[in-house]
Amino acid sequence: MPNLIVKLYSVFFKYQQKHLLQTLSVSSLTDQKPTNSFGVSSRPHESIAASNPSFTDGVATKDIHVDPISSLSLRIFLPDTAITSPLPSTHDYGGYLPPPGTFHRKLPVMLQFHGGGFVSGSNESVGNDAFCRRIAKLCDVIVVAVGYRLAPETKYPGAFEDGFKVLNWLAKQANLAACGRLDSQSHIFDSFGASMVEPWLAAHGDPSRCVLLGVSSGANIADYLARRAVEAGKLLDPVKVVAQVLMFPFFIGSTPTHSEVKLANSYFYDKAMCKLAWKLFLPKEQFSLDHPAANPLTAGGQPPLKHMPPTLTIVAEHDFMRDRAISYSEELRKVNVDAPVLDYKDTVHEFATLDVLLHTPQARVCAEDVTIWVKKYISLKGHEFSY
């Protein structure tokens, strides 16, 4: 069983989250305005970690706003292993491209989607920042944490569309960077690299080794993107999704699973809270627990599962959503997709990503296990390139 500290924090978390969900439900019923297309990507109660372009504990971060017509934002996590030339004494990599003729490493790119039931959470939160730093260091990847628009201000498919927009943006970045390498005097770059090209990705990103990682509701977004990437095919070149990691996916369905009955009042997110979150996320006329966004096993899902990328699923013993995630993984294995499940004992929903649990042994082991599996699909010899 979870220890006393986890149980106490779960009570506090559920009280806070239920209050938020109820407040948002009331406001969405009384607000007659149309859906906010600009949206919000964080809540006032979130504790935010500031970005830091210096390599603190081996990782530098920066925030960029990639869509002028919405609140969609990104936080980029760059591990210092990407840098092969000595840095200035300040150790501040800033926003610049490496000097011509220097050597640097090309690292895989991981798109990360935070949890929060589609209604809360942030790519800049203290917990998400710490988790992404850990993954960037362990996996030796550039993590791009996506600040997608939250519900109910932005209903489905807003958050999913934001994810696909980032996937297309990543492809555009790679193509613009290639143009810059062909013509070092190209106007694509200005002195700060801020006009069109994101310099950290241009210098160090290898989108042909792209991994999707989603936490809770973020896992639903990641799985949707994996399907869209399969359908898009070469239209996303040079981006290639080589694997995805679904951590405690926010799956549900109208026919209860064993865990949804046994653990209906589980720690942190219980079934009643989950249903309310889905009511806030889905448009009223589309609400169904078997909506394709909620239930990945809904009949007629496209594309065929046999085309899905390798998929690692993380589940927790005391999470009511665990059984449906396991069932989805089983369906993937039936069509020969590499789709293992890692089941952690005495753990709760989001045990590896919540700020108060990040330093537990289970959270550390989970991150290490994810790293071992991901590296099977991102390993590549000859990482150094001359710019």
UniProtKB/TrEMBL annotation:
This is Alpha/beta hydrolase fold-3 domain-containing protein. It comes from Populus tomentosa. Residues 31-40 have a biased composition (Polar residues). Belongs to the 'GDXG' lipolytic enzyme family. Residues 110-352 form the Alpha/beta hydrolase fold-3 domain. GO terms for molecular function: hydrolase activity. Pfam families: Abhydrolase_3. Residues 31-52 are annotated as: Disordered.
